Every structure is written in structure tokens, then in C-alpha cells.
Amino acid sequence: MLDRSAVIRLFTTVRQRSETLCETLQPEDFVIQTMEDVSPAKWHIAHTSWFFEQVILHTYESNFAPVNETYFWLFNSYYESFGGRIVRSDRGTISRPTIPEVMSYRTAVTERMLKLLESCDDASWETVRNLTILGCHHEEQHQELFLTDIKHVFAASPLYPALVIRNSTTAATSPPATKMISFSGGTKSVGHEGGGFSWDNEHPRHDQLVADFKLANHPVTNREWLAFIDDGGYSDHRYWLSDGWAWVQENQIIAPLYWHREDDQWMTMTLSGRMPIDLNEPVAHISYYEAWAYARWAGKRLPTEFEWETAAAAQGDRCQCGTMMDDRIYHPVAKAHDSADESTLHSLFGDVWEWTNSAYLPYPGYRQAADALGEYNGKFMSGQMVLRGGSCATPRAHIRSTYRNFFQPEKRWQFTGLRLADDD
Amino acid sequence: MLDRSAVIRLFTTVRQRSETLCETLQPEDFVIQTMEDVSPAKWHIAHTSWFFEQVILHTYESNFAPVNETYFWLFNSYYESFGGRIVRSDRGTISRPTIPEVMSYRTAVTERMLKLLESCDDASWETVRNLTILGCHHEEQHQELFLTDIKHVFAASPLYPALVIRNSTTAATSPPATKMISFSGGTKSVGHEGGGFSWDNEHPRHDQLVADFKLANHPVTNREWLAFIDDGGYSDHRYWLSDGWAWVQENQIIAPLYWHREDDQWMTMTLSGRMPIDLNEPVAHISYYEAWAYARWAGKRLPTEFEWETAAAAQGDRCQCGTMMDDRIYHPVAKAHDSADESTLHSLFGDVWEWTNSAYLPYPGYRQAADALGEYNGKFMSGQMVLRGGSCATPRAHIRSTYRNFFQPEKRWQFTGLRLADDD
Amino acid sequence: MLDRSAVIRLFTTVRQRSETLCETLQPEDFVIQTMEDVSPAKWHIAHTSWFFEQVILHTYESNFAPVNETYFWLFNSYYESFGGRIVRSDRGTISRPTIPEVMSYRTAVTERMLKLLESCDDASWETVRNLTILGCHHEEQHQELFLTDIKHVFAASPLYPALVIRNSTTAATSPPATKMISFSGGTKSVGHEGGGFSWDNEHPRHDQLVADFKLANHPVTNREWLAFIDDGGYSDHRYWLSDGWAWVQENQIIAPLYWHREDDQWMTMTLSGRMPIDLNEPVAHISYYEAWAYARWAGKRLPTEFEWETAAAAQGDRCQCGTMMDDRIYHPVAKAHDSADESTLHSLFGDVWEWTNSAYLPYPGYRQAADALGEYNGKFMSGQMVLRGGSCATPRAHIRSTYRNFFQPEKRWQFTGLRLADDD
Amino acid sequence: MLDRSAVIRLFTTVRQRSETLCETLQPEDFVIQTMEDVSPAKWHIAHTSWFFEQVILHTYESNFAPVNETYFWLFNSYYESFGGRIVRSDRGTISRPTIPEVMSYRTAVTERMLKLLESCDDASWETVRNLTILGCHHEEQHQELFLTDIKHVFAASPLYPALVIRNSTTAATSPPATKMISFSGGTKSVGHEGGGFSWDNEHPRHDQLVADFKLANHPVTNREWLAFIDDGGYSDHRYWLSDGWAWVQENQIIAPLYWHREDDQWMTMTLSGRMPIDLNEPVAHISYYEAWAYARWAGKRLPTEFEWETAAAAQGDRCQCGTMMDDRIYHPVAKAHDSADESTLHSLFGDVWEWTNSAYLPYPGYRQAADALGEYNGKFMSGQMVLRGGSCATPRAHIRSTYRNFFQPEKRWQFTGLRLADDD
Questions:
Q1: Are residues A269 and A145 in contact, defined by beta-carbon separation less than 8 angstroms?
Q2: Do D28 and A31 touch (CB under 8 A)?
Q3: Is the peptide bond before C204 cis (omega within 30 degrees of 0)?
Q4: Contact A93 D29 (CB under 8 A)
Q5: Structural contact between residues B152 and B256, judged by C-beta atoms closer than 8 angstroms
Q6: Is the separation of the CB atoms in A72 and D158 below 8 Å?
Q7: In chain C, whose CA is at the least distance from the CA of B161?
Q8: Is chain D in touch with chain B: ≥3 Cβ pairs within 8 A?
Q9: Given this model, what pLDDT does residue B194 score?
Q10: Which residue of B has its CA nearest to C25?
């Protein structure tokens, strides 16, 4: 367990990283919400402070007084237990407080938290420590959302702004020849073992029967995805789930999110501005429906989350880690591709979240906590599919092989891709 | 395997039963569609004939000529492979063909099918037999939909018409005292074994690890549901999934579908007209969201589909069968309740479909067929939850312990209820 | 003023005519509602009876008892003063009461009305007489709606049923060469003079200043409309009002309602089934937006309602009356076209309602009555445009030169057309 | 006609005034769009520059080169003739260009316009002059929208920011006792006479017959509006147009826009922050539906636009001018109220736009221009009602007695109020 200084170090690091993400933003960039899923950058910066104020300071700081009563309402996300909140789709209607005011809110919370972490008595330390660690992991999740959300905002402007300037050395290298790697089935233990932080939805660790299966040695690339497009994949109902086919037709989907055809070239939006598609990169910004259709078109299928976790456990340290937030590229440039090494799971972590064919449901024996933090994961176990492995927008320290991410099957604004699986 | 005369007998019986369901309908009842999920009775009668014409006669009848070309478009449901079709929500806009015209279409198809069943050569017999059996099971599914749909139609009229007159002896008897029956876990074989008809989604039979669990000896009753209502169950966010809570608030849900408060009495619509709630009956017409909330309120949970199937296998013939379509009551009067017998799974079959906490996903090794019938089940494996056990509107011969029904979590117009489960 | 026998004769005639309209309908045709504007035929038959029961019998029949309490709710249209009513878009969800039950309701009301008309005392006679006459005109309006609504219902079925068999002698004859007839302006009296029935919205008769103007000698024909289509009229923003252009694009409008291109031929739905466009007929089923765009394309404009009424008054008996409901053709076959007579306003009455460029607003000094019948016209004086002249679905006795019909600018399911006007 | 120096002076003054409006805004305030009707402040600042660049510089500047090609698309409002444009409801999704970039665009356009105004040859001077004057009046309209839009934006934040600090001396004074002033009818000339700038929709000046009428000596005040509320005005269908009643119910309207009940006090949002209702002020932010309902409740009616113009002409200089943009209060504080003077039309100009009962339609003989500027007014002559007199957000130089403003009947975010009329 982390001691006080380690917790303070973690807290300081995480808080600092959020602020670093803001460095190149203009004030106008902070307030815009381009769709309901997207939150303004300002909101992320404030909400991650609200979390510490509401969950920790409010209870554990002596003589607590709120920075601003209104912020409880403005910066609550979905916690019914914490009372009312702004309608989600209205987050982009709020010009005030301004960025400087929000930054000063942020600083106040950081300072008061640091004081508490240093001074709180031993009786409450364990709880304060655990909540602080949880708040840091919560903030890391919002760092990823900060990036995917500002990408969506930047993509709305025909000026295609950049968050970071991309170094020319960061181009994706060619993946190895595609190979389906075999894994033995059997009774497999899945879920978190304890030791280090984990979310409640990774518990309890338990056994699952997994049949022999195969998993591709790299995520599907843009090159492969173009073959699907060129083969009429988006216009042939036979490849699609019924819901997926309705979604394709209603939204006239013909390519991943952010792809636009310009003359003979597919272009895409990146956090370094608009660029031509790089064929070596893993495909990103696809929905579960698209992932599923691609797999069916390819004569394969998506893995279950248990197969994925089994494979990760089997390869252990050999799994290669692709681009992550720490690289500050914010694009899946597949730095883990080693074209000579066909028998490794390249980019298993990082680059793109990988859609699985598992619904996001509780593990056997899971019990949702009764307090406000019980709302964190349990109440979302409906209508979503599990993704594994983290992306180029995930902090390296945040991801692990038991980590369960989850989104509705039509969502595409995250860095979402796929890795093919098959029966063995 | 059924021989020709058995197939003919099955076909004749099933076709006849659909027509029997129409006996008390007026022409005006046949054409109405009260919501997108509901199809007009006329459409069910025609579509089940279309199925035989399109899937069998079209290929296996020599010198096939359609009864009416237009019907291919009018009475196709969702088969992309069979071409265009009327928009689902427009099924209630079609006054012509009239009922007599549709009945005459039906008769023509029946006669031509019988002729084919009697005369087709041995080379095609096996396929024709299998498709005919499948077509009969397809028609049985529409018989259940016929009943739930006409109930929705009748509920729209303030005159509250009845499909059948209820005999006074059919009142529900008191269930036994509620008891959670324990079942041992372990590696359990689930899915269909072969022998007799089954759907592709019940295959392949495979092993699942199931932990020790408990299952209630009867479905949740109206009496129990009223306690949930009276305890504020519909207005306390803590019991609800996030999607469920949004659904409750957006639709102002305060009770199961068809329940209306009249002075101090809850009334409900039945296929014998409007009646007061019978406290002994299993609660029906609830969504997955409501089932989930009730279970959380009760400190229990929903079973997985594998627990359910394990329990059904363990009790075997001791499982009691509640009201089914064959009883011609079309209401869950819980005839299987035996208040003295606490250790049996009452109403495991019949009365109400039981929501499980399993998403409708393929069994390991499942492969969707490439032809039109591949569209039957596989393409719907997204966004739906599994229900087990059949209802008062299911033909007895149609249900079995491996049968997987599936609906979106907000759907309520089927006879859907729940049975509590718990860890052991 | 009509005496008792004349009122009884009027009442009997009108009631009979509604029933005649039903003669060729099948029961299935009576219950369908294809869009919110459309009411099921059954509803028209019942509502016109409800009107007499609610407005007259309820007050003036001694010992009044309702035929069925529920009908007050089911068959009220929009009268807030008469209490609740079924949501308009739900009229097509009601299978019961059946047609025979509704017909028997109708008969009961007719009989009780006749008894009242014969026997009511002199003190209440004047009111009963006036309300009965108003109820007859109300029923005539619903006769027109009955026809336009059943046309919309029939058009939904790919079998294209017919209400009447069209006699081959009813084809439209060629209109005279188009000529803009000049009318002198000045201070013109408009509105109803009194004598005979009129609606409150035709009052008070008052003066309007009208400048010299011209009016076309016949409504725009399908031949002329095709020139507009062929000239790209539907895809050139310059011809359209801003609202009209948005409407065209959102609804992908490319032709009048009911027109479909089949190979090289424009087909249209009629109440005698589907037919090729007849170039000599007035164009029908166009919105105000389309009428306006056509006029701008043609370098002309729409007349105001005062110009229209001034022209009708100026030509008096010379105005020719086109097809009307009494002809039982229910299609604008332009029987008034006399190709040799260029100086007459052909089809000024009948064939198609003519959109004017006047908003439906009160005449100076108009006061809406305080009772329920005040809801008849006054509360609709917002957001609608005035149409004049009646159509092939209007009873001859119903129309007059001061009659103001009104619809929202996007509505097309009535027999709506246009006549060009210009400054002189 | 204005000479070069006068045009330059006008242009400079108007451009400067827009920039003055921005003085107290924070960057975050500039980009937000709270509903489709509202445009971000940044957009107004840019669009008014686009107008001069697109309409004048593009044609009349030699060697024209656009400041930024993308701006043609980003800052076009609704001119189909000028090509594509951003979807209106997406104006609030654009973070870049930033405010400094937009300001620099603005400066560039101003400078190039000044250069053109000084140097353009005599051949094109007349057109350039007229377009420049028109562009200035266009910009004045956007100044008013700037204010009403930023008010809507500020009202979304629970911090209720202020644009200007209100001086305590600006409170409304008591209006005179309400008196209906009589005006004689007759043949009245309405519309613009020429001389000075006017919009095409004020032409041609023509005669209208107006009956004797009365007009209230002041707009309806908050005190009077509260009486309407307290008398149940918002919940009694008898006062409402049918469309209005549907609007009230669907949107649960119970008071003017921006009014909120706080304990026993009605509060409202102003451009100086949130304040209690001032009973002496004219009621503002009401829809046409509300104005109409109030008038019916009061036993009066709304004036026609011709009555309004007739009264303005009759009183001439005696009409009093209320608060206008030039006062920099941006709230209808009714500075024209003189409680001792009952026979003057107080606040006829300024304070609040006054809904009339006239639909926005062309004057007899009006012809919409064929070029892009023809889109300015003519294509909106559908579905809107005329308002007269200007508001506290209108520049004094912008308004005149023939000025026709127009909005859809449900719109409320402008400073809209009403003045009662009656027959004499």
C-alpha cells in the first residue's frame, strides 16, 4: 500500500498531467461541446476537481466550506447520490466561470487536498488514501476523455487545429504479416488479483471456461480496413448485425469516424491536424457494429473479454505496448509494430481499445456498493460492450490486463479498433 | 425424425391453431398497429403464410407462381435476403388486402404446402421436411406475438374488448411461501442436445462454469410487486441501472404496463378485458430494467441464463408448468402454484417469460448460416437480454429448457416477469 | 330562414350523403389513420354524430341520456370546452366500437335528432334550427375530409384500391389558352352579406382596398406543372420561400403528393385507383410553398383572398364551376374547361382549392364567440393560409364566393391547386 | 443622399459600435450557442464583416483576395446565392478561428472597405455607397441580435453574469394611468416614402383602409402581466389560439422567458444580471401567442401593423421614445413613461418590440429582387408576424415608423412585448 508521500506524489503527478494537456489550448477551445458525449475541456478540468472536493474534502476536511456552492451542481457528472446536476447536453452552454476562474478553483482544490493528505489523522487516513487514489484514476480516465473530446471539437472547425505538432519520426511502421496465434483453453482465472489499484468491476477474480482459440498478432490496420471498404463492406447487409445495419443506413456510414474522401485520398483528423490515412496504423474510431461486420466479412470473429485476458496472461511480458498517452502523440502510430516478430501480440496495450464480443455485465459475485461510488461502474452494466487494452490516449500507468472499458455499440469517438479472433 | 404423415399432422395442427386464434376478432381488430413493435393480426396471418410461400414453395414447388407478387413486399418481415419490405411502422396503414383476401391467401398456401408435403420427391424431402418444421415453429412464435399484439390493440380502446371470456375457475391460487432453492454449481452442459427441433441459437451444446446459486421457488407475484411500488421503488434511483433510471423518468413509469390506478384499486388489462390486479398472479409486463431494480431492491439478483437452465435440468420433471397458450386463458393465472409444495420451481415454464441477467450473445462455436435463414437469430445478437421459460401465450410444444428468447431491455408488451436468484 | 320541414330535409340529405360515401368501403378501410392529419372513416362517421349529440341533444333533448359515455371522449375532435379527448394521432388505434356499432350510434343520433326537430317547442326552435344547420355544414366539411383521408389511406396500399369506378367519359378536356383577365380595383366589399348560412370567419362584411389586378382564366394544369418540374423548379432555391426551401429539402419533395415516376410516365393516385397524369387537369395536392414557388418561377404571384373574392363577384354567374362532390368523381377532371372561352374564370369553384397569399386572420371587427362553438374557427387564426373556391370533394351547396378555407402552408393531402395572379 | 464623407462616418460609427458591445465579454462568452436561434458573439462579429467582404469587396475591390477562403463558408448566414454554409445549429461548435483572429479579420475588412470608400471610381460609387449603407443597417440588426443572444447565453449560467453594470438611476418610472387613445380611420398611406434608408419590405408605399380604432397609451407592464398570471391566464384554454395552447402545454409555459419564481418573488434575467421583476417596466420576452392571449383575456385585441403605423403617423413627434440601445442599459426601463401625460403613446419606439396581429406578407406591388440581396427579406414572408417600434436593444438611428420586424409566433428571446388595441 502506498504511504503518504507516495500518495502525494501520485496525486501531484496526475493533477499536473491534466494541466499539461491544456497547454496549447486557446480559451475558445475550452467551452465547446460538439455532441452530447463530448464534454468541454473546461468541464473536465473542473469536474476532476469537483470529484476531490465532493468526495473527499466535503467529508474529511475540517470546517469545510465549498469554493462555490454553484459548482456542486455545475460539475457533478452523473452521481444521483450527490444531488442535481446540469443536463449533460447543456455542458457546452456555460461560458462562466471562465477558464481562469476554473483554474483557480482547481488550484484551490489541489492545495486543500495536499494539506489534507499531509495532515489528516490516522483514523481517516486509510479512507482518504483510498479515495485519493481512486480520484487519481478517475482523473486519468478524464484525461483520456479530454483528448478524445477535444479531437471531436477540433474536427468541427474547417481550420483543423492541432493540439500537438507531430514529429516526423513518429510514423507507423509496418506490422508483421498477419498471423492467428493459438492459445489453449481450459479453466482460466480472470479478474483482478488484488495488489495495486483496480475498479470494482474487475472483481471478484473467478474462473471461466475458455475453449481453445486464436488471436491475431496485431490489430486490424487501415490497409486491411480499406480492403473491407473497397469490397463493399459498408453496403452489404450480410456482414452486419441487424442493429448495426440500421445504424449504417440511418447515419449513412461509409467509413470510420473522421475519415473523409478528398479526391482519391482518404484523409483523417488527428490531434496534429488533418492528414492522409497511414496504411500501417491500426484502424481507429470504429463502432462495435463496424468491428463485428469486419470480423464477419473476414471470416473471423471478435474475441470474448475472457479470451483476450487469457491471451494477455499467456504472453505476459511478451505482449507489446503500442502508443500511449505518455508518448504525447495522441494517435495510434503503432510504435510496437515489429515486422519481423510474428508470434507476439503487438499493440495489445495502447494504440486502440479493442472491442470484444462480451457484454458489460457483472462478474459472478459482484456486488455494487451502496454509497455514491457504487454508481461509478455498476449502474452502467447494461447496453454496453467491453473493450480491452487501452489506447494512445490512455496513461500507461492506468491500464492493465484485467481492465474493463465499456461503451455503447455505436460509439466511435474513442480510439476504438479491433483484433480478430477465431476458434481453434 | 418425423415422417411425412407426422409432418403433415404438425403442419395442419399449427396452421389450424392460428386460425382458431382469430375466431372472436372483428374485421376492425385485424388491421390496427398501436406501436412499432405491434403487428396487425392480419399481418401475422399473412406473414406466416408468406414464410411457407417464400421459403419453401418458391423453391420446391414445380411451376411456382406467386399468389400475388405484391405480397412478397407486404408480408416480408426483416429478411434482407428476400428483398424490400414495407417499413415496419407502416404495417398498420394497409387496409387492403382485406381479411377475406388474406384468408384466401392463407388457404392457398396451406393447400399447396399440403400437396407438396404429400408429393415431393425423396431428393428434396429432407430439406422440405426441415423447412416445414421450422416454418411451424416460426408460426408458433407468431401465435404468441398475435396474442401480445392484440392485447396491446385492445388496451387502446376505452371499451376494453375481450378475446376470450374468462371462466371463474381460472383464478390464480396462492403461491407457496417464498423459498430460495439451492443448486450446486460446477461445470454444466448447456444448450440443445439434438433430437427434436431447436433453434440455431441453442447450439452448440457446451460447458459453462456455474457457481453454487439459489433460485426462488416461484416468480415474483403482484403482491410482492405492490410492496416494491409502495416502498417507492419507482422513485429511488439507487435500485436502478443508469439506463433504467433514464427510461423510468423519460416515460414516467410508475407500474407495469397495463396497470392503471382507479381510486384505491390497481386495474390491469387482460385478454378477457379489464380486471383488478390478482395478488396471487406472477407480475407480468415488466421491462428488464424493472426486473433488475426489483431484484436489487429485494437484495437479490436476476439469474444468468445458465443458472436458469442448470436449475431446470436439476429439477427435471419436478419443474411445474404454469399457464400456457394451450389453456386458452392467455393470462398468467399460475395454475402451477401449489402452496403446500415449497421445494419445487413453480411456473418455471409458462405464465411469464423470466428475464435473466445474460446478454443475448452467441454460444462458443456458434456460426450464423450464410443463407436467408441465417438472418433468423444471429443478426439479433446485440442489445438484447435473454428470457427463459415461455409464457401463458406460448404453445406448450414450443418451449423447452434450452430455449432462448430475447428482447430489448425496455420492452414490456410480452408476458415478461422475473424469478429471483442469489449467490449460495 | 328555413322552416322545420326544410331543416329536416337538409338534415336528412346531409346525413344520407355521408352514408352513401361509405358504400364501397370494406370494414378494414374504416379504421386506418395514415398520418396525424388523416382521421379514419369510422371516426368521421362517428364524430359527425357526436357533434349533434354533444351540441344539440345534450342540451335540448328532454331526459337526455348518452348513447355511450365513452363516445364523448372518443369522438370529440378539438373542443376544449367539451372536455378531454383522444390524442389526435391515436385515432387509428381504436378497433372498437366496430363499424356496425358506430352505424347504430349514428342511426340513434339521427332518429333522436329528427324527433327533436319535429317536436321541440318554439322557444328553443330558433337555436335548435341554427345549430342543426351549422351541424349539417360541419358534416359537409367532414364529407370532404372523408374523401381526402380515404384517398391517403388507399394510397398506402400497393394494391391501390378504388372508391369509385371512373366512367371513361369523365376525362378532362383541354383548358382554353391561358389568359390573364384584368379586374379593376377600388374599395371592395368583402365578406358574407347575410342570407343563407355562413361561418363566423366570413364576417363582418367590410371594405378592402384592392388595386387593379389580373387573374388567370383557369387553374394551373398538370401540363404547366410538368414544365416547372422539367425546368428544375424543385431544385432551384431562387423560386422558394425560405421555409418552403427547407421543407423541400428535408422531405425530398420532387413532385406533388401522390405523383410517382414509373419509367417515363408520371403516375398518380386517384379515388379510382392509380392512373397516369392527365395533362389537362388542374394540378392538385400541392402545398402553399409549391404554389408560391410555381408563381415566382412563372413571373407571376398568388392572388390575395380579396382579389379572388373581387374577381368572383365581378364575374358572378359567368364563373364556371368545375368538378364537385356531387359529381361523384372525386377527382379534378375540370369539367368546366371550355377551350373556346378564354375570358371566363374556369373552375373558379370546384376542382381544386386555390391557395391565396393571404394569411388566415380575423376580419376587422371579428369577435370570437365565448362558447364552445367559438372554438370552431377563431382559435385557428394563426399559421395558416387562406384557400378559396372548393374542390372536387366539396358539396356544391357548401361553397360560396366568401368561403374561407385554411391550411398550414405545407399541407398537401387536400385537393389543393393554384390560379396565377398579377399586378395590372 | 449621403456623400462620401458621410458614408465613411456612418460606416466607422457602426463598425465601432459593434466592437464597443464586446468590451466586457470574456473569450469564453464569444463562442457559445445556447439554441438554434442564438448565434455566438464571435459569429456576429465575423458575419457582419463577411457581409462587407462578400457583398462589396468581392466585387468592387480590385485584385480582391479573400482574407481566408474558409470564412466564406463559416460566416455566411442564409444566402443560398453565396453557396454553402455551416448548419445554423452548428455555429456554436467552432472554436477556431479564435477571437483575436476574428478581430483581425474584422480589422482587415474595415480597412479595405475604408480604402474602397475613399478611392472607388464614380462609376461604381453609387452602388458601393448603397451597399455600404445597407451593410451598416445589416450590422445594426446584428447588434441587436448580439445583445439578445448574449443575454440568452448569460442566462444559461447559474452565475448570471452581467454585460453592463446598471446605474441605480435607471429604474422604470410609473406609467400613466392606462388609457385607450382613439384614432380616426380612413384611407391611410403606409410604407416608406423614400428619403433615407429603408428595407425593400417597407415598399411600395400604398393605401390601406383602416377603421376607427384605439391604441393603449403605453405597453402592457409587468404589473398588468402579473394580474394575467394570477388570474390563471396560462392555464385557461379560452384565451389562447389553438397553436398557442399546444405551445403552452408542450413547453409548460407559465411566465415570460427568463422569469423564475424564487420563493414569493418573480425574478428575471437582465443584461445586468438577475433581478426582481420591476412592476413598472413593460413586459418583455413574450411570444405572439402570449400577447394574443393577454389581449383576449383583457377583452381587447392586438393592433394591425397598419393601425400601429397610422397611430405613429398621427402622433408624430408626440410619440415618446423609450429605452434604446444608445442608452446602453439594454433593458426596457421605460424612460419615456411620464405618469402625468395620459394622451401620448409612451414608449412607442424603444423598450419593447410590439407584436401586431398582421402576418408578415408583401405589400401590394412588392417584388423581390433577383440577386442575392433579394434573399434578405422576401423569402421570409411566410409563417411570421410583424412587430413594430424597436426595443431597448435597437439603435435609435435604426428604427422608424414604417419599419417591419418579423418573427415566428413562438419566439421570445427578443425584447418583445405588446400594446393593446380595440375597435372604436
A1: no
A2: yes
A3: yes
A4: no
A5: no
A6: no
A7: C96
A8: no
A9: 85
A10: B95
Residue C95 contacts B where some CB pair is shorter than 8 Å: yes
Using the structure block, give the residue that is written with the C-alpha cell 488471436. Answer: A215
Residue C83 grid cell: 372536455
* Residue of A415, A412, A398 whose CA lies nearest to A329: A415
DSSP B309: H
Is D22 near chain A, with CB under 8 Å? Answer: no
Interface test with C, best of D241, D368, D382 (most C CBs within 10 A): D382
- What are the phi and psi torsion angles at D74 (to 5°)? -70, -30
Distance, CA of C91 to CA of A91 (rounded, Å) = 40
Contact B157 C96 (CB under 8 A): yes
Q: Does C189 touch chain B (CB under 8 A)?
A: no
Query: A and C: touch, per 3+ CB pairs < 8 A?
Result: no
Please tell me the distance in Å from B229's CA to the nearest CA on chain C.
28
Chain B CA closest to residue C73: B158
Read off the pLDDT of residues C22-66 as tens digits, 9 standing for 90 and up: 999 999 999 999 999 999 999 999 999 999 999 999 999 999 999
Residue with C-alpha cell 404429400? Answer: B118
Instruction: Please state, in angstroms and rounded to a whole number, the distance separating the CA atoms of residues C379 and C358.
Output: 17
Size of interface A-B (CB pairs under 8 A): 79
Distances (CA, A) of C184 to A401, C211, C212, C307, D243: 89, 7, 5, 10, 37
C103 membership: H or E segment, kind and range: helix C99-119
Q: Does C29 touch chain B (CB under 8 A)?
A: yes
Identify any residues that bridge with D422 across adjacent strands, giving them in sequence order: D214
Contact present, C193 and C204 (Cβ < 8 Å): no
> What pLDDT digit, counting tens, does each position of C295-353 carry?
999 999 999 999 999 999 999 888 888 999 999 999 999 887 777 889 999 999 999 99
Instruction: State what percent of residues in chain C have pLDDT above 70.
Output: 100
Spatial distance between the Cα atoms of D42 and D150, rounded to a whole number of angstroms: 11
CB A354 within 8 A of CB A403: no
Interchain pair C97, B159: CB under 8 A: yes
The vertex-C165 CA angle with B96 and B98, nearest 5°, equals 15
- Beta-strand ranges (E) seen in C211-333 are 213-216, 259-262, 265-270, 273-276
Closest C-alpha among B380, B368, B375 to residue B82:
B375
Residues of B within 8 A of A357 (CB-CB) are 361-362
Alpha-carbon gap, residue A197 to A192, rounded angstroms: 9
Q: How far is CA D336 from CA D395, D402, D410, in A?
A: 16, 20, 28
Sort out which chain D residues have CB atoms less than 8 A from A94's CB and list them. 32, 156-157
Q: What is the DSSP letter of C174?
A: P
> How close A75 gets to chain D, by Cα (Å)?
12
User: In this structure, are residues B243 and A378 in contact, taking their beta carbons and an 8 Å threshold?
Assistant: no
C172-189: pLDDT as tens digits: 778 899 999 999 999 999
Cell of B227: 410492496
What gap in Å lies between CA A60 and CA D310, rounded to an integer? Answer: 71
Q: Coil, strand, or helix at residue B8?
A: helix
Looking at this protein, which amino acid is placed at residue D361?
A: L
ipTM of this predicted complex?
0.96
Rounded to whole angstroms, how far apart are CA atoms C230 and C277?
15
Is the distance from CB of A253 to CB of A234 less than 8 angstroms?
A: yes
Which residues of B fall within a CB distance of 8 Å from A423? Answer: 364-365
Taking the CA of residue D364 and the nearest CA in chain C, the distance in Å comes to 8
Neighbours of B233 (CB within 10 A): 22
Nearest residue of B to residue C35, measured between CA atoms: B93
Cell of D292: 394574443
A380:B211 CB<8 A:
no
Task: Round to whole Å and give the CA distance between B163 and B150.
Answer: 8
The whole-angstrom distance between D182's CA and the closest CA on chain C is 15
